[in-house]
Amino acid sequence: MSAHVPERVRREDEQLARERQKIARDGPKLKGAKLEARLERTWSRPRGIIGWLATVDHKEIGRRYIVTALLFLSLGGVLALAMRVQLAQPDNALISAQRYNELFTMHGSTMMFLFAVPVMEGVAVFIIPLMLGTRSTAFPRLNAFSYFMYLFGGLLLWGAFLLNIGPDIGWFAYTPLSGPQFSPGKRADIWAQMITFTEVSALAAAVVLVCTILKTRAPGMTLARMPLFAWAMLVVAVMIIFSMPAVALASSMLISDRLIGTNFYNAYEHGDALLWQHLFWFFGHPEVYIIFLPATGFVSVITETFCRRPVFAYPIVVLALISTGILAFGLWVHHMFATGLPRVGYSFYTSASMTVAIPTALQIFCWLATMWDGRPRFQVPMLYVVGFIVTFVIGGLSGVIIASVPLDLQLHDTYFIVAHFHYVLIGGAVFPLLGILTYWYPKITGRMMSDTLGKIGFWMILLGFQLTFFPMHFAGLLGMPRRVYTYPAGLGLELPNLLSSIGAFVVAAAVVLFVINGLFSLYRGAIAPSNPWGASTLEWAAASPPRPYNFAHIPVVESRTPLWDAEGELPVVTGLRVDEKEILLTTVVAATPDLREPVPAASLWPLIAAIAVGVLFVSSIFSPWAVVFGAIPSAIALTAWFWPKDLKRQPEPVIS
Amino acid sequence: MTVDGRASVVPLALAASACSYQHYQSTFGNAATEARQFNILFVIFLVICAIMYLAVIAFLIASIARRRRAGEANTVEEGRHHVSNPLMRTGLISWGAVVGSGLVALTIASFIADRSMASAAANEKLSITVTGNQWWWDVEYNAGDSSKMVRTANEIHLPVGVPARIYLKSNDVIHSFWLPSLAGKQDLIPGRDTDITVVPRKVGIYRGQCAEFCGAEHAKMALVVDVDSYRDFIKWWQHQLQPAPAPTTPLAKAGYAFVTSRNCSVCHAIAGTPASGTVGPDLTHFASRRTIAAGAMPMSEGNLYGWVEDPQSIKPGSKMPTIGLEPNELHAVVAYLETLK
Amino acid sequence: MILEPRFTDSVAGLPTHKFGPSSLTWWGIIGFMIIEGAFFGLAFAAYFFLMGHEQGWPPEGRQAPNLLWGALFLIVILLSEIPNTMIKKAARERDVPAIRALMPVMIAIGAVLLIVRGFEFNNLNCRWTDDAYSSVIWMLLFLHTTHLITDWGDTIVLWLLMRTDLGWEGRRLVDTDENCLYWRYVWLLWIPVYLMIYWVPRL
User: B residues 42-101 near A, CB within 8 Å?
Assistant: First the structure.
């Protein structure tokens, strides 16, 4: 209270304080079905299409992310099948060089920007608040906005491709090929602006995740008790914050070179083509760990539940996650070993690239030790963990091989590299993803996936994957470079390519089977109880699927495995209001209750702002003035987003 | 005449006797010091990595197959999920130590190989400049005095056993010079100078390709390297220094007139004639090369007809336009080109 | 709940706003500051990378930017920290009348800075198309300008909100406090940008 407060306001304060006492809150006096009915009303979003577009429910947004990402996975996969049909035979003329160049550009860009990172974000956005024992993410409207930006970026890229102006410069768009002189037209600009959309989306989601993980955890969930998946996502979100600006800056500089004649990448005007590579790979290397680390989180989750004990050496796993995240930023030059930079400098990057294998090797030990010490049950999610170990480690070791400069100079830009990164990305990220989608499917949908179809699909994709990608190691050693629409007969490349092409269709069939399983089980799957796997973490204390408010009371956590130590009842705190959306904020390290935080209501402004910003981005491909004129509707939308609907003071703050 | 647009290497394979199938363009070719160093280092890495992989699989199988008596495992059902087998702690530390030492050993091996390759590069005896273009290779043999400079395209001859340093430049986008049977690759970057040293050890014919995506016809930017005995190399080089032979038949003369006065001479140079364009490949001894259009087709009369008549249908997007020659012009031009041995 | 709840403490007595790291939006703003810092850091790296190629900087004897307007910008923005700190203090003391009086001062300063910035662009002595040096200094100035404009816009909107009755609410005071924090970041980042545009070319 200060001397500046006028009498009128002081009286208002007192009146509001009186009204505050009358607010209904959860607790021993309001619990059970009566409480749940009230919470249901408060936390449900408006019905109908408007409500659907305006939702800020992290579960809905997470599901959207996952479904959209799986759609892009399928589209990217179809492109891969087309490429493999073209490459099944030498000197094939099924697909022209130009079209093929578009195919591999779209395949790489779709998989990296529109599938891999968004699907991890989507799973995290869905499950993290449940795992942490809260009712919402931080900044739910920003979360909604980030989904729409992602969707619009994907629509831009695929719309352009279907209109025959899709990019054809590779997913990595090296300059000067992607610059104004050698890529006339708008193809490269569309690629570069898709980057801007997806990076804005990922950065927004990263801020949401960092703030959610640090501030909204259940009381008693100290950092040392936080589930390993939450640690993985915390590290990943911080990595996104530091790495994605590099590619957004690089692509904006590219658009600027192309549109308004700057010379960042133009060697004839004191620019440098390698500036692009440095900026791109400064992002690009952490990017692959941004994709991989959430998958290690999945493996920890599944291993714990299916071995019936927590992962061995939790502090080591946490340190491994953090050190991988940090080391990942010191490796990028290993993508540039053939560019003629000083060899002594390269040695540093070789050492760093080798060193980064150590924390991952330790994580693998910890998972295997957990299996040793526990009683593993080989249901479908655990099968994917085994598939992950068997497959990913091959990719990790081929990575060790190419970390060596003399070896990389032969293997760089050949199919050996294609083999390597598919082993680490599919073995290391997609297998755990399929496992975790099977695992959390009951939580997301309330039903179980078919176990039989799941097992068939697992074996199909595991074996199909090996058939597709193992021969590529040989294709590379036998002299097949990357990004070629055909290869000559007589070099011995026919057999590996044919095997890869056959394998690709097996993998595709396995993915189709997984999707069919996912769709059928929505209607025919066994109804799931809240904790079908007997797991230990808090999301399994909520219903399957969770009610809009997640938990009737905010749980208190006393160990790393709360549900295993619960002994039939769950300690909870009380006192959050039931008539407006509210969550509890706790302190960053010790998770002691700190503040009560209102949760924003559903709103169309995130969508409208995404449209305004999207129009700004797309029109700036065509004219720099779009930045100026497009800023106006964007500013209006963003202001309206934050402007309160009601300017009257409330007894407790509400975000309407 | 038939147009063979396929980039077939089979005739190339038949033409050479020394190398066996599959090793023209392959790391198994082992035809130079650099390639051999790669193969040795690769085998070292492969063996150590295979051992590490087998260790992981062994642990995995042991963890799965392990017999656990009732109440013995540290699980939640047995009430011991907070307890860990003390062996695992030792295991973790040993595992970390083994992995760490293995990686250190590999890093040292890599460093030693790298330094040895760098020192080999210090003794160049032959100097060549290769300039990358979309989608062909401009080759110049450097010499102190310009009358001794040889310019050719898409084909390099090297004397066996002689360290050759190849300076790499680019006129447009980034390319990469890669002859897997001989050495690792090196990029050609506009505005930057890079180089690669090769010490060929086996006489033979080898094929390489551009290994950095450089646009529409990246897949059709190949080059051929002939490793000759020192004597054969000198013979070839001295022949390359000769200007183009004058045409003798009427058809060839008509072709000469066309080539030196029309579109062709704008881009191409033929030593000893007025044609002196430098934008496209030098054609002085074109007919003695093994391929047309950077490996797009083997050299043959039929393929020459196809290329000269309609380059855009063979390599769409390449910088050589389809100009629509009359049949008699086409016959004349091809007849003349065939004399450029 | 599936498991029976065991009731422990009530959190009803906890506040709904606090200044500093207890505030959720504080973390959000720090997150965005780090993102922008990464953008600028990488732009600085690009600047030094391009500079490393050159014998002279600016290359080809081009004239470095004129000092006057940049120095004027620096002085005004550093001085703006005085009313900025006053507003921050007022927010923590719930002195809404002071906030309502001082924020227009910040807005006016912002407008002056934008005008000075316009003159700065005009006095860079090069066009962004000239060469990579020109492109990179225009880029640095442009990035900082977007920084400035967005915070100026934020300040205007916040001032309008503080003029309503909601200005007395604790969370709006926290917003004001955090906006002042962000303004500090805007001038802090200006210092290296200023040095790189005006002084490094003169070294």
Answer: 42, 45-46, 49, 52-53, 56-57, 59-60, 62-64, 66, 68, 73-77, 80-82, 84-85, 88-89, 91-92, 95-96, 99-100
**Residue spans of chain A under pLDDT 70:** 1-2
| C130–A569 C-beta distance less than 8 A | no
**ipTM surpasses cut 0.90:** yes
> What are the DSSP calls for A100-139, one per residue?
HHHHHHHHHHIIIIIIIHHHHHHHHHHHHHHHHT-SS-SS
Was domain A292-330+343-541 assigned CATH 1.20.210.10? yes
What are the residues facing B152 on neighbouring strands?
Answer: B139
Which residues in chain C belong to E strands, given as ranges? 4-10
Residue B145 sits in the same domain as residue B228: yes
Burial A53-76 (b: 16+ CB within 10 A, else e): bbbbbbbbbbbbbbebbbebbbbb
Q: What's the pLDDT tens digit per position in A317-346?
A: 999 999 999 999 999 999 999 999 998 899
Instruction: State whether residue A129 is helix, strand or coil.
Output: helix
Residue B75 has pLDDT above 90, yes or no: yes
- φ, ψ of residue A199 in degrees (nearest 5): -75, -40
Q: Summarize the confidence of residues B187-203 as an average pLDDT.
A: 95
Class of domain C71-202: mainly alpha
Whether residue C10 lies within 8 A of chain A, CB to CB, comes out as yes
pLDDT tens readout for residues C168-179: 999 999 999 999
Are B154 and B229 part of one and the same domain? yes
Q: Enter the pTM of the model.
A: 0.96
For residue B217, the distance in angstroms to the closest alpha carbon of chain A comes to 7
* Confidence at B4, pLDDT banded by 50, 70, 90: very low
Do A257 and A266 contact (CB within 8 A), yes or no? Answer: yes
B51 pLDDT more than 70: yes
A45 phi and psi angles, rounded to 5 deg: -90, 165
CATH topology assigned to domain A24-243+572-656: Cytochrome C Oxidase; Chain A (1.20.210)
Specify whether B233 is located in the same domain as B148. Answer: yes
pLDDT exceeds cutoff 90 at C2: no
